[in-house]
Amino acid sequence: RTLQISYPKKKNRPGGEKKPRRMEMDISPHTDCWFCLGNPRFEKHMLAHSKNGVYVALAKGGFNEYHILVVPVKHYPCWAALPEETRDEIDSVIMRYNEVMNSMGMDIVVFERHVPMKQSSANHMNINVVPIPRAYATEAFTAMQSHAKEAGIEIERIQTRGEVKKMADVEGYPRAYLYFMLPGDNTAKGRQMEHYLYFGEGKIPMNIGREVCADILEEPSKVDWRKCKLEQDEEA
């Protein structure tokens, strides 16, 4: 099965109008994709949960032992391109995990960076869920805004997660976007979560999600995941 995705042209068409370039992507398992379970080199000891077309894995080089990735089993490029039932399952997993972290005195920062790539094997989406101590929750918004400003992009607050698909999808073709879910106000019903989205022509830095989390946690050395890697027996 294939899925059509698009990415912006660098040059204007005659008349100044820009039209996205479109490509087809194979969403069946890729043996050379690090996030496909069909890859013979997939590190199965990192896998924690798999159900209803979604799996959860420990993040390689995570910020802490609770940092996870939530990933569709099929080779989809982003949350906005998923079928509704898979989107719902991913969101359900994230919110259940949030409840667990809340019971441990932690909040979560969630981020997804989607930039369509020409190489099909590089287009398997993954969503980072990074638990942070509750005392750091108030720093999340400031850190996100600071790094967005530095990158020259403007992230806007949206009311619901569903707006990601509505705003990032144009004629069924998901465009590049950056999504954050951050801890918001603490109410009688518990910590509320706030949604933020950027999509457009601006360049989205590769590491912006980790940069934001490292800033929140005041651990700049953890921006590079490779410096946070554990030995395999420790991961297991």
Features:
236 residues; alpha+beta; eight-stranded antiparallel beta sheet; two-stranded antiparallel sheet; 12 strands
Describe this structure in words.
By secondary structure, this protein is α+β, with helices and mostly antiparallel strands. The protein is 22% helix and 30% strand. It has five helices and twelve strands. It has helices spanning 84-103, 140-151, 163-168, 208-217, 232-235; strands at 2-7, 21-26, 47-51, 54-58, 68-72, 106-114, 127-133, 156-158, 169-170, 173-174, 177-187, 190-199. It has an eight-stranded antiparallel β-sheet with strand order 3-4-5-7-6-11-12-8, with helices on both faces. A two-stranded antiparallel sheet has the order 1-2. A two-stranded antiparallel sheet has the order 9-10. A hairpin with a 2-residue loop joins strand 11 (177-187) and strand 12. Helix 2 runs antiparallel to helix 4. The two termini are 34 Å apart. The model has no long low-confidence stretch (mean pLDDT 87).
Mean pLDDT: 87
β-strand amount = 25-35%
**What order do the strands of the largest sheet run in, or round the barrel if closed?**
3-4-5-7-6-11-12-8
Distance between the termini: 34 Å
User: What is the chain-wise order of helices and strands?
Assistant: EEEEEHEEHEHEEEEHH
SSE layout and pairings?
Layout: E1 2-7, E2 21-26, E3 47-51, E4 54-58, E5 68-72, H1 84-103, E6 106-114, E7 127-133, H2 140-151, E8 156-158, H3 163-168, E9 169-170, E10 173-174, E11 177-187, E12 190-199, H4 208-217, H5 232-235
Helix pairs in contact: 2-4
